[in-house]
Amino acid sequence: MKPTRVLLPINAKGTTSACADVAFGLARRFEAELEVLHPCPPPSQRLPYATELSPIYFEAYLDVSRKQVAYEEKEAVAWFEKASADRGEVEAQLLTVEGLVGPAVAQRAKTADLSVLPTVSAAADEMFAEARDAALFSSGRPALFVPDEAGGHVGETVVIAWKDSVESARAVAAAAPFLEGARRVRLISLVAEGEPEDETAAAMANYLTAACLPVELKAVQLGERDVGDAILEEAGAGVLLVMGGYGRWRWQEWIFGGATDHVLRNTDVAVLMCH
């Protein structure tokens, strides 16, 4: 089933040009609704909690916060109107939600087919960091992460970084609309030295072939490379990379490093992930 709603979280200044191009392009391609979400913390949530303020200063600070909220909402509207005018022919709407970024994105992402967000290298600020976490961990839906190098059309060639995991299986299922329209589908499975090839990779390739998809299966020797480096090297340029996100506890990735974090920081192709 093709997507019916694409979610594009933005801040007051919008999002990256690549993200906007991809989101509007997907909405046009799938004839889907594009929901541009502007989470905006209300005045009461912008107060310095660690500081005790007198009633006079408290009200003054609240007034400043109200003006800041109004300014940010005005900026978001201006960005949305320009982005819509530049890209056109898409059923798009701007939704401003006064609330914390994480909960707002998680709530709206649950009723969207996918969320489109910049990669870490494209936008490392706190707002987008919270939005990425919410879309990936708290929505139960896939997230499409877009670097600045990605073009407006993604998915002519799809590369599946396969691993025998629930996350990978969910990512493949989420990629169905892209797989159906792909000219080429490559499924790669990394093999560490001394370990046998993953039999589930062949099973997944057979499953996709039965769906009449042009699948090419390749077992790749990991060698001395890190998993994240190997995935990006084997994926190549100009593709849509499909993979599971954070297959182990995230604190382990923070401490020891991991493929998901490495890919989100270093990819120059769009990445569709599911957790």
Number of domains: 2
SSE-based structural type: alpha/beta
Tell me the radius of gyration.
Answer: 20 Å
Strand order of the largest sheet: 3-2-1-4-5-10-9-6-7-8
**Residue share in helix:** 40-55%
Low-confidence stretches: 248-257
Q: Could you report the average pLDDT, rounded to the nearest whole number? A: 88
Classified by CATH, the class of the largest domain is Alpha Beta
Q: Could you give the count of β-strands? A: 10
**Tally of alpha and pi helices:** 10
- SSE order, one letter for each helix or strand: EHEHEHEHEEHHEHEHEHHE
**Second-tier CATH architecture of the largest domain:** 3-Layer(aba) Sandwich
Distance between termini?
A: 20 Å
Q: Looking at the structure, what is the overall shape?
A: elongated
How would you characterize the largest beta sheet?
10 strands, mixed
Strand content of the residues, in percent? 15-25%
Enter the CATH topology name of the largest domain.
Rossmann fold
Tell me what the structure shows:
With 275 residues, the chain is α/β, with parallel strands linked by helices. It folds into two domains: 5-146, 3-Layer(aba) Sandwich (Rossmann fold); 157-274, Rossmann fold (3-Layer(aba) Sandwich). The protein is built from ten helices and ten strands. It has a ten-stranded mixed sheet with strand order 3-2-1-4-5-10-9-6-7-8, with helices on both faces. β2, α2 (55-87) and β3 (92-98) form a beta-alpha-beta unit. The radius of gyration is 20 Å and the shape is elongated.
